[in-house]
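Support request, please re-run this one:
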Amino acid sequence: MLQYRVAAFYKFIELADAQSLQIQLQKLCEEHNVRGTILLASEGINSTIAAKPDDLQIVISHLLDDARFSDLDIKYSNADTIPFRKIKILIKKEIVTLGMPHLKPHEKTGTPVSPHEWHHLIADPEVLVIDTRNDYEVALGAFKKAINPQTEKFSDFIDFAHKTLDVTKHKKIAMYCTGGIRCEKASSYLLESGFENVYQLQGGILKYLAEVNSDESLWEGDCFIFDTRVSVNQETLELKEKKG
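Re-run finished. Output below.
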């Protein structure tokens, strides 16, 4: 029997009413025992929340009824126990911290590539594949030919790009991350820096695992996720519980 449902979603969009939205969502989540984190900023929304299925759907429906969020790409998963202790709805400078709050990914970002088109893209020898996640995430699993920037936090990607990437040399760059948000921000930064052909795995690793059969998959290992379940597995998509 399904116990809890987890919803992960984000959207880059100009958000002028973050404070009023925070108040609305705080009340709604508390009323329905929805837990997790919702980040709000002038650049958009980023969230992973969990609850009993019916309660979660009430909060999701509230967001989808807002025209700004009607097209949210929501990634669902299941859990035997609720993977968060409480609800946190926070207002930040950025919904994912790159240290570049002036970027506008909703206006300019890399070309999205579907999970099934991803294979063709990264098979191109001219394409440089970059994992935009942190080192401890990459350690659990990755695409075989991807470069690990060996970052401790996402904002370290700026330093990696300055030291490693060259506009005259790297003509095609493909990036991926857990759910897509870091790729959108990083690709927006690279485009602003003069790179022209920048691609991103649409929906990230989670969408790839959900849509690509394990016998066709180029993914190796597990995918780190940011709650008490720790990771998801390619073949079964079973959620692993944290030890200790």
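The chain is about 25% helix and 25% strand. The first helix runs from residue 18 to 31.
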